[in-house]
Structure formats: C-alpha cells, structure tokens
Design goal:
about 300 residues; mainly alpha; MetI-like fold; two-stranded antiparallel ribbon; 15 helices; about 0% strand
Length: about 300
Amino acid sequence: MRAERLPRVFLSRNRLVKKTIGERIVSSIAFVLFALYAFALLYLVFYLLFNSLFLTGYWYGEKADNPGGDIQYTFTFANYIEALKVSISDTQGYNIFLPEMFFNSFWYCFIGVFSGVLMSTFTGYVIAKYEFRGRNLIYAIAIFCMTIPIIGTTSSMLKLVNSDYFPIYNTPMFVLLTSLGGFGFNFIVMHAFFKNVSWNYVEAVLIDGGGHYTAFFRVVLPQAHSSIVTLIILSFIGSWNDYSTPMMYLPDYPTVASGIYQITASNKRSANMPKLFAGLVLSFIPVLVLFAIFSDRIMKNFSIGGLKG
C-alpha cells in the first residue's frame, strides 16, 4: 500500500510546484507589464535628476538656435542652491521661499497625520468593540461618505471654513479641526483591526480591577502598533504630496507641493527649468527617505494579535 501511495503523493507535490502553460503565460504577461511600469517610473526619476544638473543645453535654447551644431552640456549642483531661493508671494505680498515651504509641509503633515490617525483609532475602537444604539448607522454613514466625490463638496467646504461662525480659513486651525473627523480610510483599517481583537483582553483587565481606559491604552492599543505606524507613514506621504488643499485653504502657508505647483503653473514659458527640477528633487527626498526606511513595514500585511484556542 505504501509503495502505491508514494508515487501519487510525489505527483501531487510536483503539480503544486510546476505551473501549467496558462499560468506561465499569465505570469509572463504580468512580469512584462510590471517591468514596463517600473522602467517608466525609473525613467522619469533619472530624467528629473539628469535635467536638474543642466547649466546649458536644451532648456536655454541652444538646440533651437543651432539645430545642426554640437552642444556642450555643462552640469552643476548650483541649481540646488538656486532652488532654495525660489519664492512665491502670499496674499499679503510677502515672498515665501522654499525653506519656508518645507517648514510648512512638516507642520502641515505632523498636525494632519497624527491627529487624523489618532481620532480614527479612537472611533474605530469604540464602534468596533462597544454596543450602543446607532452604532451600525454611524458605520454605514462613514462608508457612504467615502463614496461622495471630494470635488462635489469643495465649494460648500470653502464657504463653511470662511464663514463668520467658523473662521479657520487660512489658519493652522484648519488643518487641526478638519483632521479630527475620525473617519475615512484610516477608520476602516482600524475598525477592521479592532474587530478581530478578542474582547477577552478587556475582560481580563476589568477582572483585575482596571478600567476601559487602562484596557485600551495599555493592552489593546499596543497590539495595533504595526497598523498605526503603517497608516502614519502612508498618510504622511499623501499629505506631503497634497498640493490642492494647501493651495485652496492655506494660501499664506504654501507647502512644498503647492508652492512648486504654483511656480510651475505661472512660469510655464519663462521658468528656469533646471532650477525647477532641482526643487522637485529636493521635494521628494523626505518621502524617498521615509519610504526607504519603512518599505518593509509598508509592504507587510497588518499583524494582528489574538488568543489561540
């Protein structure tokens, strides 16, 4: 009996390892598509780095003025020094330079990201673990609000924050108050996490004489460490690259993304392109460093703690 069964097991294991012709074709197509996508991204990055070092060349008209001549390209890092001197004017007429834009980007991301993730963690835990009237309705409304296009609410939002009853337009309070909603994508992720955490943890704390705050901050919240850090990283990258919100609601506090966008939009023909490319390179360095440090954590699935048995 064993001699008859061994070949079958061996064949079944080989089938698990080997791929069929259809699977190979699909894998090959997927590999080619992802390789082309990666090449396109790398090409844009190297194109940006290469052109940020130009001193002379295409961007200054030599190619158009002398199409058959030999152009001597000169490269320099002085464009990065000049990029720090790039500025835009706020509503008061003051010039805001690139270092100030970096400062605005950091406090904008810090306030928005940490307050947003913190409130989403609180609301996700309460709605996931506590029974109260209207809990399912709140969850349904949170899901429904995510389906409403943001563009459709821009005019009403702008009127609300600029009203006499809610004067937070063009102030840092706008970032704080609008990020304390506690819903959105972060809420969905934290709600799903806490939904899978056993209530036995909380019961054990209550039996030992602790309260609900102790159970949350000292027992449940440390288990959500991986999910919270991942959400902070992703939210930081999204906030750093967000140019529309600061441009509409914080005109006197331009971030790097909104400032470079305004410079590009207003100087399409006369802008010093190598200097502009140097500013773009400087703008994505913080995001690149952050992603390089936490790429493994971002790629991994959220780890969920639990009780066995």
